[in-house]
Amino acid sequence: MSLLFVTTNAGKVREARDYLDADVTQFDYDYAEVQSDDLGEIAARGAREAYEAAGGDDPVIVDDSGLFVGGLDGFPGPYSSYVEDTLGIERVWELAADLDDRAAAFRSVVAYADGETVETFTGEVPGRIVAPRGTGGFGFDPIFEHDGETFAEMDTEAKNVVSHRGRALASLAEWLAER
User: Fold this and answer.
1) Contact predicate 143/77, CB 8 Å
2) Is 138 helix (H, G, I), strand (E, B) or coil?
3) What is the dihedral sign for C-alpha 12, 15, 17, 19?
4) Looking at the predicted structure, is the pLDDT value of residue 96 above 90?
5) pLDDT-based confidence at 105, cuts 50/70/90?
6) Annotated catalytic residue 64
7) CA distances from 65 to 21, 23, 55, 106, 118 (A)
8) What are the entry keywords (predicted)?
9) Among 140, 10, 8, 7, which Cα is nearest to 80's?
10) Residues 114 and 54 sit within 8 Å (Cβ to Cβ)
11) pTM exceeds cut of 0.85
12) Mean pLDDT of all residues belonging to the chain
């Protein structure tokens, strides 16, 4: 089976190849991202659009992820990329630093579209917001701690073992195996 992963991030493609028994190819396509509080809606709409743009030969997968901070009522959630670009991780840390509830979760929804069906698969990893630590990863990794270590302190392999995207991809892999 061949799958097109709609992303500009080659690291995400490598991660998908680790989980999926498929030929995963990167498809660089900038779909129109619907504004929604629901990661599943965003990913599903993107997958439908990308499938059409790719010509409808191979199924596509799209992932949408976000950081959800409990004490901030889930902010930044699906707006994480925009918040990182505009506020930055230091300012998000400052918002969370004095909260009683710094529990957080990284969530990812991977949407699969093949022209007949669109299915979504969710992965989540729990953690908490901490002062920035570490030099690896990207995005909010330096302020997201899971089991005593920030994602930025983990090497790529260790992070992928527990990642929210990996958990969503594992669910997709199970679903594909049952088809």
Assistant:
1) no
2) coil
3) negative
4) yes
5) very high
6) yes
7) 22, 23, 25, 7, 18
8) Hydrolase
9) 140
10) no
11) yes
12) 94
